[in-house]
Every structure is written in structure tokens, then in C-alpha cells.
TrEMBL record:
It comes from Litoribacter ruber. The active site is at S42, D154. Residues 9-167 form the PNPLA domain. SUPFAM superfamilies: FabD/lysophospholipase-like. A motif (GXSXG) lies at residues 40-44. CDD domains: Pat_PNPLA6_PNPLA7_NTE1_like. Keywords: Hydrolase, Lipid degradation, Lipid metabolism. A motif (DGA/G) lies at residues 154-156. This is Patatin-like phospholipase family protein.
């Protein structure tokens, strides 16, 4: 059971919370809803690239857990950033062996930020891996990624929910935000203050594009997890899956996207 409509899905950035995208994709797939085009920022770009390569959500989750993604970081030599991403390039190459957008089973667009020219850039041709690294390059934490003479950092700086590449191309756009933030009466420490401020900024960025989405999925349980909470990956995956199923149940029109093939 797959939809004949052109369905686009935009996956937000959000660090380890991005694992929840796999749960949402699993819920949609189980109900017969399969995107024909994907766009993603940062964690959404990582999940999106693996999904478009042909891996199932469960298989991608297993890879993330087995490779211990966040343990592959090492100190940078330069003063521009704290960490380098080169070792992650080798990791990605194990699972994206073609390293070519044109070889993907589903069309993909990856959002990054051109730090020198101050604008959002969308990659959908050429090498995938450098584009993923650029989209995931947190400013101040990683060295900027050099592509064709330009330096790039995290796509979430300017576009944390890249619906633009889907607009006018897809019949239906599904936005998925993994950074739900409830009201909080007390800010207890500086760590909470900083994390909450960053998430608020990302969400303002994402919510400004909400009206362009026909459906907007935001699992509420994501508020329990931090951006680097990778040790709780299983819980994050489950929260995304349950949140996806709940949204589908409460939005019956979404099932209209399903048709026999």
C-alpha cells in the first residue's frame, strides 16, 4: 500500500532528538504513507539520507546505535571550531557508498548555511556526504565544512525545517519537528537556560514555515530529551513512533494519502 500522490516530508534538525524522525517515519510507513521526496536539516539530513538510500527506519536506528555516532568525534587543530568531522565522513561512506544524490532511491534535498555569504543553501546534486556534514556542522563546535570554495555550517541556523525545496513540487507536504518545548515555570540553572534558548530559536525558525505544511507532526515527548541525549536513543525512537501514531489517529485525513498500488 503506497500513495500515488507526491508526498514530501521535511525533517528538522535537533541533535539526538532527530532519532525520533525514524519513529515518525516508521509510523507513517506502517500506515501505508511513503514520502516521494525528502528534505532535511542537520539530524534530519542524516536520517533523510539514509532513508532515501533505501534503509528502513529500524535499520537506520540499529546503525546509529551500533556505530555510536557521537563517539567518533576528535579534537580539532584549528581555532575555528572545537571538533573535526572528517572521521564521520569515513563512517557515512560505509552506508552511503555511492555518495551521489542521483543514486538515491528517493530524491533528497539537504539544507546548510553559507556562513560567509549569510544565506541558506540547498544541496540536491553531487556528493551527499559533504552536504550532510555541512548541514550538521554546529557553529563553534565543529570546523566549518568547505565545499567548492565556500564554508558551510548547520542548516538550522537559517532553516531548521526546509519545506522550500518541496513547495510547488509535491502535492502534500508533511513537516516533522523534533524540538517540542512546553511551558516551564522555573529556569533552575544556566544549562537549562541555554538549552531552552537554543530550542526556542530553532522552533521560531521552524514554526515560521509551519503554514507551508499540510501536516505538521511534533511529538510532545521530545521535551524530555536533550540534543546530545544519544544514550536514550531507544526512548527517543519510541517517543517518535508513538507520537507519529497518535498524530495519524487524530488526523484521519492523513490516511487519504494511502491508495492501493
Amino acid at each position: 500500500m503506497k500513495s500515488r500522490k507526491k508526498i514530501g516530508i521535511a525533517l528538522s534538525g535537533g541533535g539526538a532528538r532527530g532519532v525520533s524522525h525514524l519513529g515518525v517515519l516508521k509510523a507513517l510507513n506502517e500506515k501505508g504513507i511513503f514520502p516521494n521526496r525528502v528534505s532535511g536539516t542537520s539530524a534530519g539530513a542524516i536520517v533523510g539520507s539514509m532513508y532515501c538510500e533505501g534503509y528502513t527506519p529500524d535499520a537506520i536506528f540499529d546503525i546509529i546505535v551500533q556505530t555510536k555516532y557521537f563517539k567518533f568525534l576528535r579534537p580539532a587543530v584549528s581555532l575555528v571550531g572545537i571538533l573535526k568531522m572528517e572521521i564521520l565522513e569515513k563512517l557515512f561512506s560505509q552506508y552511503l557508498e555511492h555518495n551521489d544524490f542521483s543514486k538515491l532511491k528517493i530524491p533528497l534535498t539537504i539544507a546548510a548555511t553559507d556562513i560567509c555569504r549569510g544565506k541558506a543553501v540547498y544541496f540536491s546534486e553531487g556528493e551527499i556526504i559533504r552536504a550532510i556534514m555541512a548541514s550538521s556542522c554546529i557553529p563553534g563546535m565543529f570546523d566549518p565544512i568547505l565545499i567548492d570554495g565556500e564554508y558551510y555550517v548547520d542548516g538550522g541556523v537559517l532553516n531548521n525545517l526546509p519545506v522550500e525545496p518541496l513547495d510547488g513540487v509535491c502535492d502534500v507536504i508533511i513537516g516533522v519537528n523534533c524540538n517540542h518545548l512546553p511551558e516551564q515555570p522555573n529556569i533552575k540553572n544556566i544549562k537549562t537556560l541555554i538549552e531552552r534558548t537554543v530550542i526556542m530559536s530553532m522552533n521560531f525558525n521552524s514554526y515560521s514555515r509551519k503554514e507551508k505544511c499540510d501536516y505538521f507532526i511534533e511529538p510532545t515527548e521530545m521535551a524530555r530529551f536533550g540534543a546530545f541525549d544519544i544514550k536514550r536513543a531507544k526512548d527517543i525512537f519510541t517517543a517518535g513512533y508513538e507520537g507519529g501514531l497518535e498524530y495519524i489517529e487524530n488526523t484521519p485525513s492523513l490516511l487519504n494519502l494511502v491508495s492501493a498500488q
